[in-house]
Known about the structure:
With 394 residues, chain A is of the alpha/beta class. Chain A folds into two domains: 5-46 and 85-199, 3-Layer(aba) Sandwich (Rossmann fold), CATH 3.40.50; 53-82 and 204-387, Rossmann fold. Helices cover 44% and strands 19% of the residues of chain A. Chain A has helices at residues 16-32, 36-49, 60-66, 85-98, 112-124, 134-139, 141-149, 164-177, 195-203, 205-218, 233-239, 268-271, 309-317, 327-341, 347-359, 381-387; strands at residues 5-6, 9-13, 56-58, 70-75, 103-108, 127-133, 153-157, 182-184, 224-229, 249-257, 273-277, 279-284, 320-326, 368-373. The longest helix of chain A has 17 residues, at 16-32. A nine-stranded parallel beta sheet of chain B has the order 5-4-3-2-1-9-8-7-6. In chain B, strand 7 (167-170), helix 9 (186-196) and strand 8 (201-204) form a beta-alpha-beta unit. Chain B has helices spanning 3-7, 25-37, 57-68, 73-86, 97-103, 105-115, 131-139, 156-161, 186-196, 210-219, 227-236, 241-257, and strands at 13-19, 42-46, 91-94, 119-121, 143-144, 147-148, 167-170, 201-204, 222-225. Chain B has one domain (3-256): Alpha-Beta Barrel (TIM Barrel). In chain B, helix 4 (73-86) runs parallel beside helix 6 and helix 6 runs parallel beside helix 7.
Amino acid sequence: MANGRFGIHGGQYIPETLMNEIQHLEKAYLHYKNDKDFNSELTALLNDYAGRPSLLYYAEKMSRDLGGAKIYLKREDLNHTGSHKINNVLGQVLLAKKMDKTRVIAETGAGQHGVACATAAALLGMECEIFMGKEDTERQKLNVYRMELLGAKVNVVTSGTQTLKDAVSETMRDWVSRVADTHYALGSVMGPHPFPMIVRDFQSVISKEARAQILEIEGKLPAAVIACVGGGSNAMGTFYHFLEDKSVRLIGCEAAGLGVDTEKHAATIAKGTLGIFHGMKSYFCQNSEGQIAPVYSISAGLDYPGIGPEHAHLHDTGRAEYAPVTDEEAVLAFEYLSRTEGIIPAIESAHAVSYAMKIAPSLPKTESIIICLSGRGDKDVAAIAKYRGVNLHE
Amino acid sequence: MSRISNAFKKGKAFIAFLTAGDPDLKTTEELVFEMERAGADIVELGIPFSDPIAEGPVIQEADLRALASGTTTSKIFDMVKRIREKSKIPLVFLTYMNPVFKYGYDEFFAKCKEVGVDGIIIPDLPFEEQAEVHEFSGKHGIDLVPLVAPTSEDRIKKIAAAAEGYLYVVSSLGVTGIRSEIKTDLKSIIDVAKKTSKVPIAVGFGINTPEQAAKISRIADGVIVGSAIVKIIAENGRVSAKPVGEYVRGMKEAASEAFKPSIPAP
């Protein structure tokens, strides 16, 4: 059995054509991970280009309004390109460059990872191609144009359900046909080993900072940290340095779409079963025949039928909890945070905000909660307006 | 002697692929018999999967058509059972990990044995992950046919050594689909594989013309054709028997041509 397991999950279920490349990637990563020059180069990019460390902001008005635990927002939305995706992308594109690759490819759902990837490729002088489901290119037109502005080619994926899952499949198909000069900068803690490990490590900067920041401000650990989960990269990054702090509840918020009792959701932990897909063993929304189910969420970034293998393991062991949050709840939280704190969150992150609003009132004022505000919501304004029956012309 | 190894005893083997249930299982059943009559030595039956990451558009669409017509793994087993009552042609499944995993490895391979499936190809099951499947495919005597790719390099020997049924050499980088030209140095891959392989070596991915079939069969033991057949089925639907039969006959002849001394060795 290959390594890269999290309990029973993970593994490397990919075509033979990619095996040598992926083993090469693992070797290169394990080398550069401990390489002083690589790390100082990456830290310089994260700090001087992406704007790290990100703020841990005390949402005082919101905390007062909810009347319970103090709410802190880890402001990944303030990173360059507007989301946590840049943390992983700068690491992977720099790694690809060290591996003498000249081209990076990536999938994108909402367009956040695609924009981050196109940005890093522009900065580091790499050719870049992004694969995006047709449905997503329509609901995230601005991000498509952004990627093109940054010099990337955007390939519209028309196969399958034309969303994130199909974008991942098409990116894998492209990689199989052109592996020598190309690195697949996978955007989440999913896919075959070593991607779940690499992406987690590059995203773990979120909890490394947040843990130190909360200890400095509050003098103690938070009662809970909360993040939204699609594939699960911002959640894994937010959980990682709290894993050993057993008193801290780790909560991932899945997209429940129209509700977990309907067929229109993307709640993998709540409704999925064990399977093998996109290179990994994990939980997937699927039917009894093992056909991957079409999933749905108002949020293109959470609209994925699987979850990263480390999350699946954290669920199995009970170390993390996963809660479904509906479209309606997320939209309410989106509007609430905008009005209350003057911060428009990404609709993905609004799923985490919603769950925090649910649990904060029942916790004492002496406790705190950290929400990972994984991205900013400018990209979602038109879609939320539409949800409310207002048709904006972009 | 297994049905698969027998198929390679009669000269160069022509291996035909189609997606089971495209456009429906009745047509697939009819096509298996038709392809056997036309000279196919082995038939690969695709169990459709919603997201086949190693397939190009032609087979992706066939999988979706098959699923839309209500094809399930159980119904495919029933079809194989019916075929096996009348035919001894070796049948090899081609599918992805998830449908097999979901059926249950033990139940799946027990059923393969019961109905008369001879082997299986799983494109998203590389050498390193084979053990969890082989425990059960081996228990029930179903050949696990592995793939080697143009990028396999130092991996070829160990994959070939563990191969069962036949070794599937992927002709080119990329996904399945018709290619006008195959540039890979197949001979050197096959030469390395031959050193450790105890089974015949067949080449697939991209092959669609009689010329390509003739050229490949000069260096390999078998020629695998998929997308070109699936394309004919896509165009002709339930009345594909005649055109598929004609195509398979031409390809089988071309593959056998390579034996004739009039064609100089490459």
